Amino acid sequence: MKSQIYNQPKYYEIAFSFADAKKQVKLFEKFINKYSKIPVKRVLDIACGPALQLREFAKHKYIATGIDSNPQMINYLRKISREEKIKISTIKANMNQFRLARKVDFAYIMMGSIMYTKNSQFFLFHLDSVANSLNTGGLYLIENLTMNWSDPKLLKSQSWTARDQGIKVKTTYKITLKNSLTQLVVQDIIMEVNDNGYTYNFIDKDELKIIFPEEFKLLVEKNNKFEFLGFFERCNVRKLKNMCADNIILLRKK
Fold this sequence. Notes:
Shape: globular
Structural class: alpha/beta
Strand content: 35-45%
Helix content: 25-40%
Radius of gyration: 18 Å
CATH topology of the largest domain: Rossmann fold
Order of helices and strands: HHEHEHEEHEEEEEHEE
Number of domains: 2
CATH class of the largest domain: Alpha Beta
Distance between the termini: 30 Å
């Protein structure tokens, strides 16, 4: 992914530091305990970025692997792992085309990054790559698939500010509908940084495809390598009663 923002891993981590990695990993373990058919020792973070959750897994002695296509992110994760004295294997690879030397027991992708599969065909390639890297009976957890035109928050600009070590990062996020027939949207992210008096602006613009819930299930069925277990609430092991922008999707490798 070509990105001004993603090329700034420290600022990126600060911007998205609101995530409670400890709480998220505990939730993932609840999903594993309820739905995995195999014990989980090896975990895979896809499009991992700074990998807050993976670092938490590593602290709990899971065998942790992170995949990302961005070399700056990979180098940052290696550096921060050494500083935190945890062991994480890193792989520079495209999320739509990768293969591991050894399969994992649990895989996940965070923060709606599944949209970066770009289109339905690449999404199928992505599922192939995950399936080839996951042991039979293991889970694939997808957080926050953007899939609902009717959610008023979808097309509303969001902005938040985070601070750490004298660095202030203001992030603005907006999705604009480009073509409802082809389900294309334009995603704009602006990151305004004040790093101890030095100011920088970073801007990303991506054209992405929204995959709707029933379309998602049909693509999983076409791929034929996963069981679809359901759409879940983002913070609980409860299935959704109505569509929500904050969600988790759970698949299990056949």
